[in-house]
Amino acid sequence: MGMYAKGAALGQAAASSLTMLAYVYPSRILPQFIEQQVAMGLTTMTETHQTRSVIDALGKLARPLVWRSRYSEGALHITSLLFETLPGIDTNDPAKTVTTLKFYHELFLHVPIIDATQYRLPPSQSGGEDDVDDQLRSSTSMFGDWVMQLLDKLFSIFANQLEIETGGKIELMIATVVKSITDVLFQQMDASIHEEATRKILTFVSNNVIPQALTSVRSLLNSAAVARPSESLSIFIPFLYRKLITLPDNNKKSSSSSSSTNASSSSSSPSGVILTHATESETLWYLTLFSDVLRGANAAVLKYKTEIMNVLQCTLYHKENAKIVKTAGQLLENVLKTLVLTRPLDLRSVPSSFYSSDDFKATHYKTWGDQVNFKSLDVKWHIPNAEEIAFANQLIDTFGQRALTDLERIISHQSASSSAPASAPMKEDGGDDHMDVDTASS
Length: 442
What we know:
two-stranded antiparallel ribbon
């Protein structure tokens, strides 16, 4: 019961001790904990601190719970625990929300989000599986439904989120944890679940503009894009581009409905496209999401060179709004880093060659919790190709040279101003010249 202590140090010590015991003797520790403590902690309506303590302990127990080679039956509880802990994401209890998201992060470091029932068992196992494996295989069909419910919970958090500057540490912590959990979730998702989740996110951002939740929402889109760049960009970029840019054929119609309060009233590109006539909040919202979707998307950004150039032309030299110019500068930085930096391409729990195999997807539940052999790791890296480098040079030539020219002009103007002789002070009408000299010398 030390796990429920109100003192944080004692509660953490109890949970850590439980974790060590679970590694040593999982078949004795885990069944009692699940049947007694978890059932009580997740159903209590009055002792909410018990719920948070139980979920925190589940996060620490995630690996021994799913480690098939040590305790095969523990993984049978995963699906029910995922759905039973979803109420822990509570707009009125940020601390419990953070704890719940940390539990999901720890769990899915070891569990791929793949519906194994969508894949045929390999010939070597066509004769059937034992009862535990058969139940786990069936339970993975619920992963997709759980992911959709999790996104609904996150959208509710975003809608009620405060500005990080206003909310303080707790809002910053939520944004940080959201980034961590979404990175892991989207990396572990199979293609079909990833597409469904990505389209659900698109529906959310198309119907909502929530500036105070921008940090969390941009992380969500970036996580989806980095996991599967080509598929995600094909969903996000056309929509975001339409929200930002008006094509030449629509310019005349759009200009007739513009107003002085629009953030885009004076921005256009040499190709004739202009920013849509949106409010400042809407422009910053869609421009930031456009920037973060491209960040880390590797060579997939090359398909959208025209869109990137047009958006930069319309925003980087905006004459009326410094916030838009600053965000456009971040867009340029993100695209350049995406094109030229070397970095690993995935962060999945198993090597890419394993993950992409249909045999693995059909039986991935057999390997939950297993340690990867580091000697057999096959890390895939993004190494810039010639087309990526060429596009990076095009961006630098188009936008970097102009920036350098502007900087040189400002420096030369300031140098000319500082070297000009100072004009003599004017004396007041009716004043005495000698009195001015005496006063100055004194």
